[in-house]
Structure formats: C-alpha cells, structure tokens
UniProtKB/TrEMBL annotation:
<keyword id="KW-0238">DNA-binding</keyword>
<dbReference type="InterPro" id="IPR018060">
    <property type="entry name" value="HTH_AraC"/>
</dbReference>
<keyword id="KW-0804">Transcription</keyword>
<protein>
    <submittedName>
        <fullName>AraC family transcriptional regulator</fullName>
    </submittedName>
</protein>
<feature type="domain" description="HTH araC/xylS-type">
    <location>
        <begin position="178"/>
        <end position="277"/>
    </location>
</feature>
<dbReference type="GO" id="GO:0003700">
    <property type="term" value="F:DNA-binding transcription factor activity"/>
</dbReference>
<dbReference type="InterPro" id="IPR003313">
    <property type="entry name" value="AraC-bd"/>
</dbReference>
<keyword id="KW-0805">Transcription regulation</keyword>
<dbReference type="Pfam" id="PF02311">
    <property type="entry name" value="AraC_binding"/>
</dbReference>
<dbReference type="Pfam" id="PF12833">
    <property type="entry name" value="HTH_18"/>
</dbReference>
<dbReference type="InterPro" id="IPR037923">
    <property type="entry name" value="HTH-like"/>
</dbReference>
<dbReference type="GO" id="GO:0043565">
    <property type="term" value="F:sequence-specific DNA binding"/>
</dbReference>
<dbReference type="InterPro" id="IPR020449">
    <property type="entry name" value="Tscrpt_reg_AraC-type_HTH"/>
</dbReference>
<dbReference type="InterPro" id="IPR014710">
    <property type="entry name" value="RmlC-like_jellyroll"/>
</dbReference>
<dbReference type="InterPro" id="IPR009057">
    <property type="entry name" value="Homeodomain-like_sf"/>
</dbReference>
Length: 284
C-alpha cells in the first residue's frame, strides 16, 4: 500500500509508485530521508553518483543539487520524508536533544547508507507504523506517527555514528582542504587559478597547495579536473542531447582537445565512446 501526505513542514510519501515528475536537478530548504525499495536508479547528489540497491537510505539537508535518474522500464518504488528542522524541534520535548538529533543532516550534508538486513527491518517497521497512524486521522494517530518519526531519526543518528566520527576527527588541515573543495564546487565550471582559490580562502597559495596534497594525496588542479570530468559523466547520463563540445565547455574546459585527452586518461575511453556505452546500456 502506498500513501502520500503533504504539508509545508512535513511531507511523507510511503512506497510511492507514481512516475517521477522532477526530471531536473533541484534543491530545497527541508531535510530529506529517502528509502529506495525497487527500480533501477542512479541517484545524483553534488558530484556523487550512487547506483542504488533496494534498502539504500539517503539522508540530505536538501541544499545540494540532486536528482534521481530513473530507468522507466522498471517499477520505481521509494519512501520519502521531507521535513522542516523546526518541525522536529516543535514535536520533540527537549529542544537541545532535537538539535543533536539532526546533526547527521547538518554535519554530513548528504550520505548514502547501505542498511543491514536488521536496520532495514527496523526502518520498514517504523515507516509502516507512520503510514498506519496517518490513516487513522485522529489525535492518537497523529501523536503516534510523530513518535515513530522521531524513533526513525534516532535510528538514523545511530547508524551515522561512524561517518560522524570520521568528520569530527578532522583537524585544521582537513578543515581548510574541505573549505577549498567547497570553493572548487562553486566555481569548477569557470576559468579559475590556484591564486583565485587561495584568495577566496584568505590563504597563501603555497600553503594551500602543500596542505591539499598532504590531505588528499593529489594536487588542487588534479582534483579540479577530476571534478570536471565527473560532472561531464553526469551530464552525458542526464543530458544525452548535448554534444561533446557543449559538455566540455559547460564543465569549464576552453579547448575540446584538452577535455578529450583528460577524459580518456581518467575514464579509460573517449567521451564519444563513453556516451555510446551509456546509450547502449539504456537501450539494452
């Protein structure tokens, strides 16, 4: 059974099977919990592409551009909760606890969790209960649905302890590199220099270059080129009508030959070959 509830503060879609109606990248202010049940989906968030498996759970703060790329030959079933963080503060008895409960969404920004069988069973029991209580439409149903939702958030908080620990263990160099990556994320499509990135961070360019290599094992520009090539792969997947030249220009390359050379070096085939492989997989 599927169920959909809409409001500005809390939006619950349970085992939704409706055709997807937002075939473009989008963002929103509400936090999101997305549980994938079945279908064939590449989920794109920022510069990440996740090939989903049934039972995968995605959490996000909503502000990073995202969209699922759906193979319409397969039934697409998903459960989604959009919620305003103020809604959690309003229904939680302790405001401070509510803030901590939402830390995975703020600290991680987005994450894909591959749930174990036990974790998935627990998540499904809570979603089932939320749907059942929604159907009651009375005071008790509303309150029990809220309790099930809060319990789901506590489960997610528990399941995120390892990625949260990895994030909190970061020291000053890691933080500075993360800031540099955020700058690159905002301007990788533009013509940009090391001096530009360092200037935006109020850092010495030599220090930036040194610490970036120490933390990531690669140079700033190698990272930048990988980001551009990864974005090109995303656009080849989502915008099949765009030419190779258009994709190259949109990803910040001034010369097609430079783009093609780097693409083959990093992906193992030319842009044209990569696009043909995608088209073959879509039609096969």
């Amino acid at each position: 059974m599927s169920f959909i509830h809409h409001s500005s503060m809390f939006d619950f879609q349970y085992r939704n099977t409706a055709p997807y109606e937002t075939p473009y990248f989008h963002s929103h202010a509400n936090y999101e919990i997305y549980l994938f049940h079945s279908g064939h989906v590449h989920y794109l968030i920022g510069d990440q592409i996740y090939l989903l498996q049934p039972g995968d759970l995605i959490l996000m703060h909503g502000l990073t551009l995202h969209r699922p790329n759906i193979d319409t030959r397969y039934p697409y079933i998903r459960s989604i909760i959009h919620f305003d963080p103020r809604y959690v503060e309003a229904i939680h008895a302790a405001g401070d606890a509510a803030q901590e409960l939402l830390r995975p969404f703020r600290a991680l920004k987005y994450a894909r969790l591959r749930l174990s069988e036990g974790q998935l069973d627990e998540a499904m029991q809570l979603l089932d209960r939320m749907s059942l209580m929604e159907g009651r439409g009375d005071f008790v149903g509303v309150q029990r649905q809220r309790l099930a939702f809060l319990e789901l958030l506590y489960c997610i908080y528990d399941w995120c302890q390892e990625p949260l620990a990895e994030r909190s263990a970061e020291g000053e160099p890691e933080i500075r590199v993360q800031e540099a990556i955020q700058v690159i994320e905002g301007c990788y499509q533009e013509e940009i220099t090391l001096e530009d990135i360092a200037s935006r961070l109020h850092m010495n360019k030599h220090y930036l270059s040194k610490v970036f290599k120490e933390v990531t094992g690669t140079t700033v520009f190698t990272y930048l080129y990988h980001r551009r090539i990864n974005q090109a792969k995303i656009w080849f997947l989502t915008e099949p009508d765009w030419s190779v030249t258009e994709v190259a220009m949109r990803t910040g390359f001034k010369h097609l030959s430079h783009f093609s050379r780097l693409f083959k070096q990093m992906v193992g085939c030319s842009p044209d070959q990569y696009r043909k492989q995608l088209q073959a997989s879509e039609t096969g």
